[in-house]
Amino acid sequence: MRRRRLTHAVLASLLVLGGSSAAGTIPAAAAGSSASTPSAQSAPSTADPKPASDGLLAAMQRDLGLTRRQAEARIAAERAAAVLAPQVRRTAGEAYAGSWFDAERGRLTVALTPDATTGTRRAIGAAGADVRTAEHSARQLDAVKTRIDRLSAPPGVSGWHVDPVANAVVVDVVREDRSDNDVRRFVSRARAAGPVTVRTVAAAPRTFAAGTVGGDPYYTGNVRCSIGFSVHGGFVTAGHCGRPGAGVSGWDGSFIGTFQGSSFPDNDYAWVSVGSGWWTVPVVLGWGTVPDQLVRGSAVAPVGSSVCRSGSTSHWHCGTVLATNETVNYSQGAVHQLTKTSACAEPGDSGGSFITGDQAQGVTSGGWGNCAGGGETWFQPVNEILTRYGLTLHTYTG
């Protein structure tokens, strides 16, 4: 479905665009004038009276089963948790065993090892987080995952990640392959690395690129993918969508720019420089289904937070953050440090935006399932892409 150009042009006219900015989504003829201040990792302002558009709130209501008031309250609580998470991690020090957002309580939960001092526990509680005791520290679990990362995984193992709630490394095995000898051997070697829990999943993950079928938003060769987030000078997207030097055309067939950097597998990120009359704007598109969402920063949402995704095939869908720093075993090779969500996606959504409230989270990598029957989707965190290529996220500060 082609997005409504008039709606997007009206939004663009409200933003102050840098005069020499190139863009990934708005032709110059459709854009007005504006100004924005770049911020790669801006913290969210908990005082912002409306951190999300009506469309994003509607998508959360649809996909998470919330009322509008509950969706608004959840976004506010998640913003507070995102600010608190790095602070309590520093306070916990070596006793830190992970943290996550508890949607039922609307608070951040922090796990601490038994040797955490009473003063540390009190300080974290006084800061506004709930405290739990866990056997293994985050550093210990990260070391276990690193050891598993060195193993060669068969196709029946879909991925693995540190789960702070379980206080273990969770290895996901495709249901129909759980009795496969290679899978059983991998699981046995993973268990030898440290505390491991095995989970059965419905299907193996795949990337969400698609052959050219007509529509939005960008094309490279015969592959259609989705724009992630505007950066100054271009946009970020998924690495499996194109290699360095590959040309990119827009929804209307006009030339946008060129892949300047790309990594896949191992990582799944890329950035495209843009020109030829295209400008960047700090928005996530609603594709004519919901209003566009302004991007104001990239504070990381904790595990358990809500997250919404925009892509050129399935448009807006929401879910929750299930895990971070997960290794995903695609057929093309393992990709590391992905974030897993319960949001659905479909072919053509690759590279598209994941956002919590007005905070950019990452670009769509792949997953399993679809938006008719459900599934899980992974994204590459946006801050890692910005750091890797020295980019600045295009944000709106009005």
- Please state how the strands of the largest beta sheet are arranged side by side: 20-21-22-25-24-23
- Taken as a percent bin, the fraction of beta residues is 25-35%
The shape, in one word, is globular
CATH top level class name: Mainly Beta
Region (Disordered): 30-53
Protein name: S1 family peptidase
Domain Peptidase S1A alpha-lytic prodomain: 136-190
Pfam families: Pro_Al_protease (PF02983)
Describe this structure as you would to a colleague.
The chain has 398 residues and is α+β, with helices and mostly antiparallel strands. It has one domain (1-398): Thrombin, subunit H (Beta Barrel). Helices cover 22% and strands 34% of the residues. It has 7 helices and 25 strands. It has helices spanning 5-13, 54-64, 68-92, 118-126, 138-149, 181-193, 382-389, and strands at 26-27, 96-102, 107-112, 130-133, 157-163, 168-174, 196-201, 206-207, 210-211, 218-220, 223-225, 229-231, 234-237, 247-249, 255-263, 269-274, 278-279, 283-284, 293-294, 306-311, 315-330, 333-341, 353-356, 359-370, 374-381. The strands form 6 sheets. A 6-stranded antiparallel beta barrel has the order 20-21-22-25-24-23. Strands 12-13-16-15-14 form a 5-stranded antiparallel sheet, with helices on one face. Strands 2-3-4 form a 3-stranded mixed sheet. Strand 15 (255-263) and strand 16 form a beta hairpin. It is globular and about 60 Å long. The two termini are 30 Å apart. Mean pLDDT is 85; it is low at 1-43 and 210-215. Keywords: Disulfide bond, Hydrolase, Protease, Serine protease, Signal, Zymogen.
